[in-house]
Amino acid sequence: MTPALLFILFLSMADVSMxxxxxxxxxxxxxxxxxxxxxxxxxxxxxxxxxxDPCTAIGCKWPKSGRYVNVPYYISSDYSEYExxxxxxxxxxFSLSTCIRLxxxxxxxxxxxxxxSKDGCWSYLGRQNGGQYVSLAKNGCxxxxxxxxxxxxxxxxxxxxxRSDRDTYVRILFENIEPGREFAFEKKQTNNLGTPYDFNxxxxxxxxxxxxxxxxxxVAKCNPYMKFGNAENMSANDILRINKLYECSE
Length: 250
Ligand SMILES: *[C@@H]1O[C@H](CO)[C@@H](O)[C@H](O)[C@H]1NC(C)=O
Ligand SMILES: [Zn+2]
What we know:
This protein is an alpha/beta fold. Helices cover 18% and strands 16% of the residues. The site of zinc ion has 7 residues, from strand 3 and helix 3. It comes from Fundulus heteroclitus (Killifish).
């Protein structure tokens, strides 16, 4: 298990008036948008890793064995059965539409995800050697879309708004972003796998993510008033990307 999280990015997906409160409390029950309170944070690994991250071309994909890509998981015993079942449903959702199979960790599996309720919802980007945490805090992260989002990071996928082609689809309003959070909006040289920018992706931030003043931080060029970032389930494009990156049909 990698001990050092060099930094952890928090993103409150709260509505604007609640942002500063929810960042620390994560109590989604009080929230107007119950679906996603905090969203996806990428824990940077020791080695440099950068929709599919460049690391997927140099070894951070999970290996395929036969038709399937097995990703071993271990779920912390701290979760109640109810909480564990939410996580399990999220993990199992990958097998409905992709060749990814989240399988229980067994002795001898070197690489795996260890799901634990830590500080917020976050994941490493791509497969790490020797096991990696996925944090799903009990209060704020136990939603199908959040489980999917964090597993998608572990599979090697970035946030939608950092895609290499994002400037065609969105404007980032850096003047509205909380100081110190700008890095979460920096464009990356992603491999978009021939799929379009998708506002309905579970990897899309909310339009007011990390706002310091209640104004939008991400604006859709096709419709400046569009609200987005509340997907409850993987979109067709999320599924297509997995199937392409992991060559599910081959
Ligand atoms: C999520 O999407 C998948 C694939 O499109 C679908 O099979 C499944 O029923 C959806 N689940 C929920 C809870 O909406
Ligand atoms: Zn994320």
